[in-house]
């Protein structure tokens, strides 16, 4: 039974502690033990288990590799000649061009042409399969180099180019991910040997100098992407329906039920159906703050895409449009449902609904995987905000059960009952589609959701800003640098101290370009005002959201009594803005606040009144008009991965790390006499007071 009383459309939402749905929404890796059978077009996806006892089929390319016959090497490029029914499953990063013929990738057909697709295929997710589906389209002109060397005729020729983004070296910083992308440091390479007629080994190809690698022999611990047949049917319906109102599709389902994968299939099918027109993108509203493929960590986002998303979008690496984020600060809406809904509404209305042009773009919405108990009430509220035309419910349990009309699943009843109720309450004609989801037993996924969150944080802070992202048909290529942040000095940014009186502040504020205040999300259990030790405990070594707020609004807050309380004698402290005040001022539909990105606070220097801070996106902060906007920082619960704080010393970097530790220049960590393995003797000073603890 739900922990919540039935909700009225105008009722405030509240969350009941320790209710049964807590587990569902939380990031715990305690996934359901039931294993689900998805519907598939041909063979079942090898990765999806029917029962605990069933052995998973292996993953491999349906391709008999023969060097210089159907594989051609040209420097950084490998050409593969495929015949009808053959397929390539590759891991790593590559730039794909279809040289001749056509391919089906994750349920969408791609034709030969000059388009270059950046594919990111980490082993954390099911690998895309490049399937040759043409048998007679090879009539195009081939370049002489290919004609000369490929003596045989192939239905499809694909060109794969290296794409070393440095993501492959993330293992240098965090060993957890050392095999996530194909790399020449940690991977073992399949050897491909070309035999002469006399049996001598002539050439061998071990993929060491490539950023990708085909899976040529059966592998049991990887997964391959195979959209179920009803997803393909759904995507056909999605692109074929010519309605006057653009579609707004909400995708609902449990964690790991395939929501993002289905969303990408629908997006790619749509873009394919309109032939990738640059000014006709598709809109993606990703409102899952925990497991987002499209947003900044612990944020919700609206982005537009006009180029296909093949493989993972773990790092927001696919481009071809724009992206706006709102930082929520937690991985689950349950932490502050009202604030979460405020951010969703703000994002949706400002970026989509209020813009006459954008509103004509079809919208796909990736929902949080919290669909039990209170999560259902939240869905009801989101339906009210977004007014979807369609809701796809990815059911991840017994597939046969939900195909029957009288499925007596209580949870379904609760969810679908409320969705139906919302149709009447909001006078909305919503098409509800039940579809099969996938379900992976957590042991068959390479990384837990917590580990993937760590990956997202690291890749966010180590991405080299690309200020020239184009929206052309070629997606932009991100670049990363996984040296520990601690190896470079943080920026020193002044802050406005509490010593300013409301009168003096008005005269000085317009000139001030530093940080004008800090807030802690969900701070209601912090004793206020805070002293310097408490401020350091909360902010040292923490990830913060950076906001630009309108100067007038800032002054309103500053002058309010709650901010100005200065019973603590430490007047050198930064201005502290209670979160209730922050929410009140920057609540629904407030366009007086803008989220600029995330930063990591290294430390606070109270003498010089400065924050030492790492800012990956300095440009967006520099572009602020400081006479009209002031900067404030918000602390949620996105945490700095331990590997950032205690960088691993390896090879030539060893000396550098040792020196750092020797001189006790490592902040945040209390060290015992010796360094130990496994970080046991490290004590990280990272303890924000948790709500309800
Ligand atoms: N049709 C499919 N065939 C094989 N693997 C799939 C399929 N759909 C999804 N997967 C894999 O299942 C896992 C979960 O998929 P996905 O991330 O799309 O689910 P989700 O519901 O969006 O998850 P979350 O709630 O955590 O965001 C991923 O590893 C993905 O690659």
TrEMBL record:
GO terms for molecular function: ATP binding; polynucleotide 5'-hydroxyl-kinase activity. GO terms for cellular component: nucleus. Residues 253-406 form the Clp1 P-loop domain. Keywords: ATP-binding, Kinase, Nucleotide-binding, Transferase. The keyword Transferase applies. The keyword Kinase applies. SUPFAM superfamilies: P-loop containing nucleoside triphosphate hydrolases. InterPro entries: Clp1/Grc3 (IPR045116), CLP1_P (IPR032319), P-loop_NTPase (IPR027417). One of its GO terms (biological process) is cleavage in ITS2 between 5.8S rRNA and LSU-rRNA of tricistronic rRNA transcript (SSU-rRNA, 5.8S rRNA, LSU-rRNA). Gene3D superfamilies: P-loop containing nucleotide triphosphate hydrolases. Residues 18-48 are annotated as: Disordered. Residues 20-32 have a biased composition (Acidic residues). Belongs to the Clp1 family. NOL9/GRC3 subfamily. This is Polynucleotide 5'-hydroxyl-kinase GRC3. It comes from Saccharomycopsis crataegensis. The lineage of its organism: Eukaryota, Fungi, Dikarya, Ascomycota, Saccharomycotina.
């Amino acid at each position: 039974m739900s922990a919540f009383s039935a909700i009225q459309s105008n009722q405030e939402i509240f969350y009941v502690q320790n209710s049964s749905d807590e587990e569902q929404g939380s990031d715990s890796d305690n996934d359901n033990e039931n294993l689900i059978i998805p519907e598939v077009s041909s063979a079942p996806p090898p990765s999806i288990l029917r029962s605990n006892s069933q052995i998973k089929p292996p993953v491999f390319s349906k391709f008999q590799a023969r060097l210089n016959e159907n594989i051609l090497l040209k420097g950084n490029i490998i050409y593969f000649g495929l015949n009808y029914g053959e397929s390539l499953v590759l891991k790593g990063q590559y730039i794909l061009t279809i040289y001749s013929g056509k391919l089906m990738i994750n349920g969408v057909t791609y034709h030969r042409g000059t388009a270059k697709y950046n594919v990111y295929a980490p082993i954390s997710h099911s690998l895309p399969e490049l399937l040759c589906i043409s048998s007679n389209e090879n009539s195009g002109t081939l370049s002489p180099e290919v004609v000369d060397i490929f003596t045989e005729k192939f239905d499809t020729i694909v060109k794969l180019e290296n794409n070393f983004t440095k993501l492959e070296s993330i293992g240098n910083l965090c060993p957890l991910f050392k095999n996530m992308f194909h790399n020449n440091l940690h991977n073992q390479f399949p050897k491909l040997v070309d035999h002469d007629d006399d049996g001598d080994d002539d050439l061998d190809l071990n993929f060491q100098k490539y950023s990708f690698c085909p899976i040529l022999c059966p592998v049991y611990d990887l997964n391959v992407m195979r959209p179920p047949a009803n997803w393909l049917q759904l995507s056909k319906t999605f692109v074929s329906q010519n309605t006057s109102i653009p579609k707004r599709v909400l995708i609902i389902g449990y964690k790991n039920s395939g929501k993002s994968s289905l969303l990408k299939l629908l997006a790619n099918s749509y873009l394919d159906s309109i032939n990738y027109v640059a000014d006709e993108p598709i809109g993606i509203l990703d409102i899952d703050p925990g497991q987002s493929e499209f947003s900044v960590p612990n944020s919700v986002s609206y982005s537009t895409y006009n180029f296909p998303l093949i493989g993972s979008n773990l790092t927001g690496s696919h481009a071809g449009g724009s992206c706006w984020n709102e930082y929520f600060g937690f991985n689950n809406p349950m932490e502050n449902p009202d604030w979460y809904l405020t951010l969703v509404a703000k994002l949706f209305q400002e970026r989509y609904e209020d813009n006459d042009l954008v509103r004509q773009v079809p919208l796909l919405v990736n929902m949080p995987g919290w669909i039990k108990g209170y999560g259902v009430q939240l869905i009801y509220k989101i339906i009210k905000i977004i007014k979807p035309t369609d809701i796809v419910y990815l059911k991840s349990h017994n597939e046969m059960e939900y195909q029957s009309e009288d499925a007596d699943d209580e949870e379904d009843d609760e969810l679908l009952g409320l969705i139906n109720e919302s149709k009447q309450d909001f006078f909305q004609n919503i098409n509800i589609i039940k579809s099969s989801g996938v379900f992976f037993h957590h042991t068959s996924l390479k990384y837990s959701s917590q580990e993937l969150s760590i990956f997202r944080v690291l890749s966010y802070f180590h991405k080299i800003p690309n200020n020239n992202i184009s929206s052309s048909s070629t997606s932009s290529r991100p670049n990363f640098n996984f040296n520990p942040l601690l190896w470079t000095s943080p920026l020193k940014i002044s802050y406005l101290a509490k010593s300013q009186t409301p009168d003096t502040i008005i005269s000085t504020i317009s000139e001030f370009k530093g940080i004008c205040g800090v807030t802690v999300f969900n701070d209601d259990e912090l004793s206020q005002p805070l002293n310097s030790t408490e401020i350091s405990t909360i902010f040292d070594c923490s990830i913060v959201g950076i906001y630009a707020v309108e100067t007038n609004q800032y002054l309103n807050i500053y002058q309010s009594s709650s901010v100005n309380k200065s019973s603590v004698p430490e007047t050198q402290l930064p201005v502290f803005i209670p979160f209730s005040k922050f929410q009140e001022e920057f609540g629904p539909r407030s366009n007086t606040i803008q989220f600029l990105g995330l930063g990591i606070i290294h430390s606070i220097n109270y003498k010089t009144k400065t924050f030492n801070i790492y800012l990956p996106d300095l440009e967006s902060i520099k572009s602020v008009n400081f006479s009209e906007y002031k900067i404030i920082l918000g602390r949620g619960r996105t945490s700095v991965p331990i590997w950032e704080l205690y960088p691993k010393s390896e090879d030539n970097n060893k000396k550098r790390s040792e020196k750092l530790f020797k001189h006790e220049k490592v902040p945040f960590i209390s060290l015992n006499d010796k360094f130990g393995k496994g970080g046991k003797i490290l004590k990280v000073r990272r303890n924000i007071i948790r709500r309800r603890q």
